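Dissemination and training. As part of the outreach component of the grant, students in the summer workshop were shown how a complex can be specified as a set of sequence lines and then modelled as a single object. The example used during the hands-on session is reproduced here so that future cohorts can follow it. Participants entered these lines:
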Amino acid sequence: MNGAQSLIRTLVGSGVEVCFANPGTSEMHFVAALDAVPEMRGVLALFEGVVTGAADGYARMADRPAATLLHLGPGMANGMANLHNARRAHTPIVNVIGDHAVYHKGFDAPLESDIDALNGWTHGWNRTSTDTASVGQDAADAVAAAMTAPGRIANLVLPADVSWGDGGEVAEPVAPPVPVPVEAERVRAIADIARSGESTVVLLGAGATREQGLLAASRIAAATGVKVFVETFPARLERGAGLPAFDRLGYLAEQVQWQLTDVKHLVLVGAKAPVSFFAYPGKPSELTPDGCEIHVLADLGEDTAKALADLAEAVAPDTAPVLQDPVRPEMPTGELTPQNWAPVIGALLPENAIISDEANTSGLMIPMTTVGAPRHDLLTLTGGAIGQGLPVAVGAAVACPDRPVVCLQSDGSAMYTISALWTMARENLNVTTVILNNRAYAILRMELMRVGAEGAGPAANSLLDLAKPDMDFVKVAEGMGVPATRATTAEELAEQFAKALAEPGPHLIDAIVPSLI
Amino acid sequence: MNGAQSLIRTLVGSGVEVCFANPGTSEMHFVAALDAVPEMRGVLALFEGVVTGAADGYARMADRPAATLLHLGPGMANGMANLHNARRAHTPIVNVIGDHAVYHKGFDAPLESDIDALNGWTHGWNRTSTDTASVGQDAADAVAAAMTAPGRIANLVLPADVSWGDGGEVAEPVAPPVPVPVEAERVRAIADIARSGESTVVLLGAGATREQGLLAASRIAAATGVKVFVETFPARLERGAGLPAFDRLGYLAEQVQWQLTDVKHLVLVGAKAPVSFFAYPGKPSELTPDGCEIHVLADLGEDTAKALADLAEAVAPDTAPVLQDPVRPEMPTGELTPQNWAPVIGALLPENAIISDEANTSGLMIPMTTVGAPRHDLLTLTGGAIGQGLPVAVGAAVACPDRPVVCLQSDGSAMYTISALWTMARENLNVTTVILNNRAYAILRMELMRVGAEGAGPAANSLLDLAKPDMDFVKVAEGMGVPATRATTAEELAEQFAKALAEPGPHLIDAIVPSLI
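and obtained this result:
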């Protein structure tokens, strides 16, 4: 057995059964080994940003990592923006980064570069396999590292000769460490605060935005009067009818400051105290109000869901959670506007959907219009590196082939990783993509005003303008094998969205929505 | 004057008049400042890999750097694969990487990352502006660093508050250091070798593949019998009728070994001794024959063109260069094949063209079929990170608006940076793109065999296959505003290529060419 085969067999044995791949010559033995291990599904993407974003979306939904296959330093570099998002989402991912043969590295061949520097940037677990006999163990260790709470990126560099060498050995799965339990004393202290009657906000983040955590948080709120928010960009938020509904903190600093007005205690559960997404002249970075005490119920790496359950048991043993009623928005009519497209989605969202949301400014109304839709999962842009929505939808659809995936995607962001459409077609994934085509980096129009930039005129505005030429996403999608239609009215959007959801495989709707600003 | 204005004014004063940009919030003051300095042309791209690749193509043709504008670490990361190619091309580039305000960095906002680690990966010049008053000087120093022979990447990190702060000062241009002259003794020693009658190869690289270097090399060869090769992937090779014609070293190790058979002396001029692009089991990394002595006439950073001129003066004072006659291939007919599309290009290549060549396996015949075409520049894939061809074509066309740019682009590679087409349309660039659409990563089919990977079957082959679905580049191009046609015969390709060249603005031809293997 060569190194590549032992690697793939070990991954499969450790529960990693999908590899999103964009291979090159140095990865050919890995590619060849896929035929020896049919349990591993190879999914080809045409750009590494799709590979890593898909791995992110996959693990958010599957609760176990996918592998990626990347071609040396430049392949890793192309995948790094979405690894940044995955890092912020605390998503477990096992990157297999092919490299030159060990003996070849000193020759500075054209594709040689400092892969370690790139891996370090991901703040994950890093190892280079140096010996064919230990590749299997390296792979098992990588999976365990990725699965270490709250989840992280594991980078395994695989030199070509280690991959093609004989003597590979399959390793047993390695159990990741158990999440650190939260001591009872801390739960008691937070319980005292919750019962104090002072204005208290509980902020839910990693590990606390799934059903179990939400139900506990709702009981705590109902029993004590604390207010609950979800962090601004949760990796995966379960929501909809039958689940507790909590607002997310806003994207804009002003929104967060308003949401936290007069709060005396901020209780963090797998989340960080809110800071401004960007700096603005004369405005604060920290958004917690003056005089507000910050308390940590459970930090990243601790058992957040268990801590919330313990807190609920302490303060709300007999209190039931408050659940969202099923409610759908009225179906809108007329020309599409920034306001009326979101109710269409809310009115028609199917049972058990997964939403990959990179609608940015166009998506401001989505939380409101979908709150009482059938239960669904929401996957958001966790790290601010745009170009995540389409790849995450790919990965979610691979992880959950029986669930409808809805990708709400702004036009500018779509173009970073547009070839994800091809992978949707290739794998016949059940993804309905709605492009919010406002022909602008609308968020930057807003930010240009908010930062108080002086003297902006035609030259500045042209760099925020995606018209001239207008993108035709129908043609782009069809060119990549995805059936597509254009909607300019709410009625058209509704008809096309319902039809797309009713048919298997990917679809795209190019929704012409004017820019909010 | 704020920091951003002083930065842009200094860049313009230092000869940097184009900024390829994909900005975000932290760069809004830079964007606004473009209206205050109309001499700086901002060119928007929809993905940072297009930004950096365009800056590479621009500087290869303009002989001075463009600036880029990149959005924090993730924006830099997206641009890095083409910066890798630019590093290998020794292209001067000034990257302006926006960052959070200095006081905001400690808060670990979502887009925070270790930008220094990314910059280090480019092996260039790095500085973070920490003070608005010195941003101008930082910019002048960055341009000088980029222009230091043989050319390199300068990374200037611009925190938002340094950019928006008042008190910016425009700095005078800084002269880059003069290239190190080659001492007469070294020229004399190489002259002795050239005249020795022993089998000698002169290998031309950075600084030696332009007219002056080529003419000198040709005179040396004519007078002494040495053989001249150009490095495998030159950044910019001037060629065609009226110039000396030298073969490039091959991509495959076997080709190079054949080209260097029995050579006793290898003389390097701005080039490195050839090594295998990848490692292969049982095959050597170094491709210089056993017993061949390696000599350096001029190293990177030295004045290669002057050294060649001195050597020519020493060994060939009265010898004329051998110039390529004008000759065109016969116009082929019939269904497109891997062999017959390249003569169409050679037969019709216009005067003074610039070829951006990322045709990969499909392009094997291009050097032969264009050797006697009218004089042109050839820009190649220097670092092996695919996705360079379209962006380099963008940059070359911006640098040389009066010259026709021909982009020969393989299908798989095109998809990494496909949004370059939109920038071509936006800027109405005279680029004629020919997609060699063979529906495969054909080079990897070849490499899968060459690396001796065992057991490759359907699973492996599917990861090298770009069919299912077939890409329709006509639709993709039209969707991004570029007029496009499809060619399936040599006659159609000829007609469409001639028509595209005759009309201003960008065009794309989706040439359906079977895979070589």
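Chain A is about 35% helix and 15% strand. Students were then asked to discuss how this feature might be tested experimentally.
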